[in-house]
Amino acid sequence: MAALIERNLDGLRQRSVYAMARQDASRQDDPTFQVCKRGDLLLVEKDKTGSPGKDWMNVTNQRTSASGAVHKDTVQFLPTLEKPTDVMMELLSPGQRKPSTTQNAMHRNETVAPTSLKEFAFENFR
């Protein structure tokens, strides 16, 4: 069973076009490495040779439009061939979410005046 799961994961990695950075990566001393932050969307540049044994891969950061190399262990491959929506990215990296000001305003306006059970029954059951 474990071999089957591993085989499926390897196939998914080979077909995936998009990945998400799982951690911050910064190697500013070498320009061949990609500088990315946790939660960045990365477009994987597939090799023509198709060498699956490599630990490094070339990507383009969608936030900065910069290209470079990242280690395969620092990214999470997304099982999609189309660019993921903002909602999908939010679901995949909930810690990076910025609270929406409209949601906070809606929660403040939802306060309801307390009523007694007698008042509620009088208003709704006549």
TrEMBL record:
This is Unconventional myosin-VIIb. Residues 12-80 form the SH3 domain. InterPro entries: SH3_domain (IPR001452), Unconventional_Myosin_ATPase (IPR051567). Keywords: SH3 domain. It comes from the Eukaryota. The keyword Coiled coil does not apply.
